[in-house]
Design goal:
Blueprint (H helix, E strand, L loop, with lengths): L2 H5 L5 E6 L8 H12 L6 E3 L11 H10 L5 E6 L5 H13 L4 E5 L18 H11 L3 E6 L10 H14 L3 E4 L5 H13 L6 E5 L5 H11 L5 H10 L3 H21 L4 E4 L5 H10 L7
Parallel strand pairs: 1-2, 1-8, 2-3, 3-4, 4-5, 5-6, 6-7, 7-8
Helix pairs in contact: 2-11, 5-6, 9-10, 10-11
The structure holds flavin-adenine dinucleotide.
The site of flavin-adenine dinucleotide has 25 residues, from strand 3, strand 4, helix 5 and helix 6.
């Protein structure tokens, strides 16, 4: 199913994310985790593509398994900053052949020197989005940043660039993780004031490892609220307690989002079926609509 159709329905949605293996040695374990998450009947599942500017051999294969074996709509991520036009065309043909209808079109992070060669074919996600639209037949999403993208001079400038992405053919936006819902509500108001009305899917990260999160929030410019820092300080050294607290925090965030009319929530479940299962169970009556 095209996600644009799903988002046009009244019902709240809940989706989960997995990341593909780097090498074929780990394919089976990722496949198993993805299918376990699919068995929870999420509205769709997304599969990331590379990281730190890198590419990925297995995104399409995992997305295909989710669709065919897991019987769940897949959203395949695709980055462009280290790809040539031919690479992208090949990937689009592969996705079409696999029956994948939804792509999250991204620029990708600029790789650290020496990691991957930076190509000159694409500078911004909007260029990839335009090309996918011309290729045809895909529902296209893009990324957005309620606290502003780290490279943007201001949130206003970043939102203007989101407008360019939407004009290029981006039909929905998925947010970077955030831990204070008020930041998202303000952001959505700002998008509306600029005439951007595509569905915004709230990206929620259940924190199960406190140390990792300090580093990734620092890199992405995500603010950790005091309430969250207190939890991480108190339970950070106790993995089981941190997991329980992280899932409870994420659940509370999601309930507040739905209650405030944010209808679509995407959980960064990081190949962890147990985390996805607890969150889904915590929301069982709420997502019934
Ligand atoms: P862009 O939209 O191109 O924006 C990048 C910067 O350029 C911003 O500062 C923006 O303001 C500016 N900009 C955009 N358009 C223009 C323009 N026309 N003119 C001037 N400036 C412009 N990375 C991966 O490697 N793999 C993944 O699977 C992945 N999934 C992600 C999923 C989500 C939901 C999010 C939020 C991020 C994801 N990322 C992923 C990370 C993403 O690749 C990085 O955040 C990257 O730095 C920016 O990608 P983008 O598509 O938002 O870029």
């Amino acid at each position: 199913m095209k996600l644009s159709k799903l988002f046009s329905q009244e019902k709240p949605t809940l989706s989960f994310e997995v990341f593909p293996p780097k090498t074929s040695d780990f394919f089976q374990s990722v496949e198993q985790a993805a299918l376990e998450i699919a068995s929870l009947s999420p509205d769709y599942m997304s599969v990331t593509y590379g990281a730190g500017g890198g590419r990925s051999r297995f995104t399409v294969d995992i997305a295909k398994e989710i669709e065919r074996v897991g019987n769940t709509t897949a959203l395949a991520h695709l980055t462009c900053v280290t790809s040539t036009k031919e690479d992208v065309r090949e990937k689009l043909l592969e996705l079409r052949e696999a029956g994948i209808e939804n792509i999250l079109a991204l620029r990708g992070d600029i790789p650290k020197e020496g990691d991957y060669p930076l190509r000159k074919d694409y500078r911004y996600a909007c260029e990839l989005i335009r090309e996918i639209r011309e290729f045809g037949d895909f529902c296209i999403g893009g990324a957005c940043y309620p606290e502003g993208h780290t490279e943007a001079k201001s949130l206003e400038e970043d939102i203007a660039n989101i407008g360019i992405k939407v004009e290029a053919g981006c039909e929905f936006l998925t947010t970077q993780m955030f831990f204070n819902n008020d930041i998202l509500y303000d952001y959505i108001d700002k998008l509306h004031k600029k005439g951007i009305f595509v569905p915004v899917v709230a990206g929620i990260m259940p924190i199960t490892n406190a140390r990792q999160i300090y580093r990734s929030c620092e890199l992405s410019g995500t603010v950790l609220p005091k309430r969250f820092i207190k939890i991480a300080e108190r339970y950070g050294d106790n993995p089981a307690a941190m997991k329980q607290a992280g899932i409870a925090y994420a659940t509370e965030q999601i309930i507040d989002l739905y209650a405030n009319g944010v209808k679509n929530v995407h959980v960064y479940s990081m190949n962890k079926p147990d985390v996805a299962r607890i969150i889904k169970n915590n929301l069982s009556e709420i997502i019934r609509g």
